[in-house]
Fold:
Amino acid sequence: MLFTHLKKTPLLLILMQFLLISTVYGTRKQGTLKPMYVCGNSAYPVPAVMNALDAVRRLFRKHKTNQLVRYTGTTRLPIFTGQTGEFYEGKIKGSILWDFSSTKRKVKGYVIVNKQRDVGSLVGVVGIGDEGTYSVCEKKMLRSTRSSALNQT
Structure:
């Protein structure tokens, strides 16, 4: 059966398939596949993000905790994607997590975003900075190398 299949398949096609398989196998050994985040930053603060940030800061001052503080809520805001350069209305759904345990007191948040035109699909993770600016990060399976300049969360 294999012989008849090889007889019908052109030699060039077999050679191309072999090269493709060997290339995939060869690159697989060079690095490990892991989820990384390709990010595009926003240029302006968002009121919804600022309100959530203020609420968490008040909570931090009140309880004087140095642990992770979680803010849960659902809101809508315009999101700029750095890769495609387009604006779309995203829905922040889930929890924003701030870590107050670092020495610099850097505030970071991560929320789940769904595109309005493609409801229900996980687009990525939003990182929220100190001033209420945020970045949309698309989760992609990329090769992790030492020379990678991608943002990793």
Observations:
- Residues 11-30 form the longest helix (20 residues).
- Residues 22-49, 64-153 have pLDDT under 50 and may be disordered.
